[in-house]
């Protein structure tokens, strides 16, 4: 673990120079840019965005997507490319990338746990290096702890066989970036948008049900109300 911290500090110090020296990949839909966009760093309200992105429910959390990856150079570059794609217009998603967004000198574990709580979804870039790093497995378990049965986790696999896929998330659908990376990036964006759209839809349904209950018949002295209460009694079970 101490070696991991040394590698992290070294990687963050050389981040700018690595970005200048390494050529961008040709299979990414948008140019690589590691500069945080306004959509990533801003916590203010929405501005001229699609309905799912402009909803108040979305802006209750700081990030739309948190991206977890290993310290391997290839994984770092892949995560940067993905975040650049998602943050670029017209997608305008707000992403958390710990190598960029963790404050220097702050406790990394604490900041990561807070970022998990402040993000709608978490993406795991699962590669051979990811499976070898204890820190990555910690990140995966932390994300699972926040929502073990929810739809908030997006596994992304690259260059691993099916038998290496972590058992902890075997019931989650994954996106295979090894087949078509452009299509994979677009699918990630669509998944985030679908999640936000479902949030808005569920909120509207809930509000509609609340309004209907307020506008319904009074329970006091109503035989219909008595029938509903009796019908909602828990069913008896036999062992």
Structure description:
Residues 61-199 form the TIR domain. It holds the Pfam family TIR_2. InterPro entries: TIR_dom, Tol-interleuk_rcpt_adapt_Tirap, Toll_tir_struct_dom_sf. The structure is a single chain. Helix 7 (108-117) runs parallel beside helix 9 (134-146). The protein contains 11 helices and 5 strands, in the order H-H-H-H-E-H-E-H-H-E-H-H-E-E-H-H. With 239 residues, the protein is an alpha/beta fold. It is 49% helix and 10% strand. It has a 5-stranded parallel β-sheet, with helices on both faces. It has one domain (2-206): Rossmann fold (3-Layer(aba) Sandwich), CATH 3.40.50.10140. It starts with a helix and ends in an 8-residue tail after the last helix. It is globular and about 50 Å long. Helix 5 (73-87) links the parallel strand 1 (63-68) and strand 2. The longest helix is centred in the last third of the chain and has 35 residues, at 181-215.
Quick gist of this model?
By secondary structure, this protein is α/β, with parallel strands linked by helices.
Key terms:
239 residues, alpha/beta, Rossmann fold, five-stranded parallel β-sheet, 5 strands, disordered C terminus, Toll_tir_struct_dom_sf, Toll-like receptor 2 binding, TIR domain-containing protein
Q: What's the layout of helices and strands?
A:
Elements: H1 2-13, H2 15-21, H3 38-41, H4 51-54, E1 63-68, H5 73-87, E2 95-97, H6 98-101, H7 108-117, E3 119-126, H8 128-132, H9 134-146, E4 153-157, E5 175-176, H10 181-215, H11 223-231
Parallel strand pairs: 1-2, 1-3, 3-4, 4-5
Helix pairs in contact: 7-9
